[in-house]
Task: inverse folding
């Protein structure tokens, strides 16, 4: 073949015939990395385009043109943007996000702790919302178009329609201010005990749960209804199988992919969407960290946070894609 | 001999939800009775909405969707199964009475292996051990003529063809050695050459296992091959009920007579076929994935005449239509319309070229915007091609509605308020509105009941006479070809295997494939299936 690309394409085609699963998963992995790289450019360019300047903010009243130029030179901001981008990217690939301009400390070190806090919050929100959403979805299917279904639908829709900061403040007003049963602010420290920690994150967790619940619940309901109305479920019933057996053996394997998909999407939202919630509750997570860094134009921190958020989002979506691929018998067992 | 299944005055109701009105209870089966003896086959036949599937499912005490059995008795071996509780009825379903659905492709769970699904009910009901059931499944796969019966069960539904799935579903029904099987249009979705194999396999399996069967279909010729008795149903009532010979050879009711006599030749073939309106030359086309679907196809459609393109699913007939419309540009070959060569891609064609070729689809349902009224649907081409608006447009639409024998009353109706046949008529009117010279008809009658399809064909032929419009008529149904075509093109796997005037293509000497296709069409004649199978055996022995 004259065209070398044609050879590659033919190989890929052949591989796709024999190992569709591995090829598809490898493709997803490659695409995710490519996407992450593109995002890193976007983040770097976006941060560069932000109005305001670290040196000016830092120096405040005492900003003279000479002092500003000195600081810029210290930070290496006088060099061309491409040089700085590749230097930064080179560090990131090795796990080094550079030093914070504000504190001078390595970003990686600070961010690890903050990320831990955010994941802690997201984990509890997920541990409550996922089973609750799937469970409520099943209840809604069971009482389809009757009162419990409608109530679940209306309440979850109401919860999703309110912005999360609004839900947060309402919870604070009721549970922390008026009833005094919850802790506010939700700040956690290193030397806190487990029970204190859990008490501190109760309100932000509740807020997050309310935000992601409706979407997962509705998708679960839709996925199960679509599977239950398929012809093979009728076949199962006409075989004389019991309802429970039919659901476990025939409905579940086919409903998993769409449910996992929406769950992953919402898990990603839990990690990424905490920014607002953390600020409202003064919780020392990634979101709060990022917002503080933006205020003082501490660019290495902003970039690191942005990239980590993007990575989490892409990773979880990739996992969802791969689960959907693996759950599909057509891809698992080619003709 | 005592009756295995005895249905007495069966009444079935359903709740319907008319738009904008309160839910309503209606009766869809009005007191039907019949008897079926052990090992016999009763054919239930009728158009869609006749209640035949509903009656078949009642033999399993099952109502699909909002359907309820409201009265009567269903006696299985003398025991009424309607009053049974859930547990009692579960013991019957899948064990004593089994069901074979029309679409085996949808009725098998895509997530499990065929073998596991075939033996599931038998094992679940404790009738056999897993190993015994597997052995029986292998045996059934063999008598149903499935390839590599020992390993067939290890395959997933998507790994086998439609005809094989339908036979696997029959094996699933036979596995538990039931007393009765309900076959619900098991061959309707198959190609004719596949249908004949499945039909023979089912007939053979019924004879070898001695099970009784209810065989539901809308095709009288099919049911005549397999049944002992036939019941003709219409609108939930019995029209005629008797032995197969009497129904086929000596029908008493007008409706049955119409069913038996459907599809007579309607059109004498045009003598002069030299005035070509559309010429397709050396067309080869492929889809984006690199799979070539058309190989060097050349044919022409004479002006004011009908070319029928026949072939089984996957033969490339619809792709040919896509090439002619320009939706799929071919990589080789040309399309000439009148004296002009058409651009390969639809977007490069002039509005006038687009106007002169119109399309009618198989599913009128999905080819119309459900949110537009009939008036808007038919009026759109009038406005688009001729700039007609307002009262003038309305007048034209009503004229077209009269032409398709529907009338002004339908002007403000929505597609959802029309029957299948009416929708197809509206689709025809929409095509006519553009005053085309050629209409590509892509299986316009295959989703319709025989008598309704007759009406559509009559309409198309009348319009052809009045307007001198040409048709390129895509179909898999040889009977339609016989009825309306002037010339015929036979396609197989993207290649043109036969092309010429109808009298030449459909009469000896035959092309091999055309011969097979013609012999596979069920005929309204007792013993036809045996005759065909015998000839086949002789031929294969002779070779």
Result:
């Amino acid at each position: 073949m004259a065209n070398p690309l044609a050879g590659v394409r033919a190989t890929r085609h052949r591989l796709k015939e024999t190992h569709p699963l591995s090829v598809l998963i490898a493709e997803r992995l490659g695409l995710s990395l490519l996407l992450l790289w593109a995002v890193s450019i976007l983040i770097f360019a976006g941060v560069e385009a932000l109005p305001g300047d670290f040196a000016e903010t830092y120096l405040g009243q005492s900003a003279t043109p000479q002092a500003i130029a000195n600081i810029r030179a210290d930070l290496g901001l006088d060099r061309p943007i491409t040089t700085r981008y590749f230097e930064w990217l080179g560090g990131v690939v090795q796990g080094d996000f550079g030093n914070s301009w504000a504190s001078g400390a390595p970003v990686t070190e600070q961010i690890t702790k903050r990320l831990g806090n955010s994941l802690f919050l997201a984990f509890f929100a997920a541990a409550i919302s996922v089973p609750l959403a799937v469970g409520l979805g099943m209840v809604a299917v069971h009482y389809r178009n009757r009162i419990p279904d409608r109530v679940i639908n209306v309440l979850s829709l109401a919860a999703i329609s309110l912005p999360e900061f609004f839900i947060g403040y309402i919870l604070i007003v009721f549970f922390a201010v008026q009833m005094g049963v919850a802790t506010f602010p939700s700040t956690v420290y290193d030397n806190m005990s487990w029970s204190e920690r859990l008490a501190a994150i109760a309100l932000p967790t509740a807020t997050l749960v309310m935000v992601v619940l409706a979407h997962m619940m509705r998708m679960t309901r839709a996925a199960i209804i679509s599977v239950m109305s398929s012809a093979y479920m009728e076949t199962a019933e006409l075989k004389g199988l019991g309802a429970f057996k039919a659901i476990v053996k025939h409905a579940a394997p086919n409903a998993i992919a769409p449910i996992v998909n929406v769950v992953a999407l919402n898990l990603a939202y839990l990690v990424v969407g905490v920014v607002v919630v953390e600020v409202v509750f003064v919780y020392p997570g990634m979101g709060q960290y990022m917002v503080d860094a933006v205020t003082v134009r501490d660019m290495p921190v902003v970039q690191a946070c942005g990239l980590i958020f993007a990575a989490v989002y892409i990773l979880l979506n990739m996992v969802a894609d791969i689960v959907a691929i693996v759950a599909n018998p057509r891809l698992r067992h080619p003709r | 001999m005592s009756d295995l299944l005895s249905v007495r005055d069966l009444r079935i109701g359903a709740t319907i939800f008319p738009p904008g009105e309160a839910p309503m209870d209606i009766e869809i089966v009005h007191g039907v009775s019949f008897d079926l003896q052990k090992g016999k086959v009763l054919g239930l036949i009728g158009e869609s909405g006749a209640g035949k599937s509903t009656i078949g499912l009642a033999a399993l005490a099952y109502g699909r969707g909002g359907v309820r059995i409201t009265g009567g008795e269903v006696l299985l071996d003398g025991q009424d199964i309607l009053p049974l509780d859930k547990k009692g009825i579960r013991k019957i379903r899948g064990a004593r009475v089994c069901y074979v659905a029309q679409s085996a492709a949808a009725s098998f769970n895509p997530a499990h292996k065929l073998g596991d699904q075939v033996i599931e009910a038998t094992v679940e009901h404790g009738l056999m051990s897993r190993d015994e059931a597997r052995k029986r499944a292998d045996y059934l796969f063999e008598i149903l003529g499935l390839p590599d019966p020992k390993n067939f069960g290890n395959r997933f539904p998507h790994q086998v063809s439609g005809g094989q799935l339908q036979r696997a579903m029959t094996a699933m029904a036979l596995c538990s050695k039931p007393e009765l099987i309900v076959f619900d249009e098991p061959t309707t979705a198959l190609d004719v050459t596949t249908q004949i194999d499945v039909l023979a396999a089912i007939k053979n399996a019924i004879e070898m296992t001695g099970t009784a069967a209810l065989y539901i279909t809308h095709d009288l010729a099919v049911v005549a091959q397999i049944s002992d008795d036939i019941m003709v149903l219409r609108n939930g009532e019995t029209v005629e009920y008797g032995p197969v010979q009497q129904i086929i050879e000596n029908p008493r009711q007008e409706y049955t007579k119409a069913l038996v006599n459907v599809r007579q030749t309607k059109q004498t073939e045009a003598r002069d076929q030299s005035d070509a309106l559309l010429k397709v030359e050396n067309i080869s086309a492929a889809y984006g994935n690199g799979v070539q679907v058309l190989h060097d196809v050349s044919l022409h459609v004479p002006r004011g005449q009908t070319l029928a393109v026949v072939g089984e699913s996957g033969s490339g007939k619809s792709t040919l239509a896509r090439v002619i419309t320009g939706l799929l540009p071919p990589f080789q070959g040309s399309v000439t319309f009148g004296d002009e060569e058409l651009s390969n891609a639809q977007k490069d064609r002039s509005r006038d070229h687009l106007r002169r070729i119109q399309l009618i689809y198989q599913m009128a349902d999905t080819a119309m915007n459900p949110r537009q009224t009939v008036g808007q649907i038919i009026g759109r081409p009038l406005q688009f091609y001729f700039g007609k608006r307002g009262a003038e447009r309305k007048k034209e639409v009503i004229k077209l509605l009269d032409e398709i024998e529907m009338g002004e009353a339908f002007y403000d109706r929505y597609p959802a308020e029309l029957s299948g046949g009416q929708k197809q008529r509206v689709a025809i009117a929409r095509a006519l509105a553009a005053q085309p010279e050629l209409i590509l008809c892509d299986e316009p009658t295959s989703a319709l009941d025989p008598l309704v399809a007759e009406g559509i064909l009559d309409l198309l032929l009348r319009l052809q006479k009045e307007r001198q419009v040409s048709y390129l008529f895509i179909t898999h149904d040889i009977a339609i070809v016989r009825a309306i075509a002037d010339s015929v093109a036979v396609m197989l796997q993207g290649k043109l295997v036969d092309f010429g005037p109808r009298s030449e293509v459909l009469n000896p000497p035959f092309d091999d494939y055309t011969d097979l296709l013609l012999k596979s069409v069920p005929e309204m004649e007792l013993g036809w299936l045996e005759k065909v199978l015998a000839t086949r055996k002789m031929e294969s022995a002779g070779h």
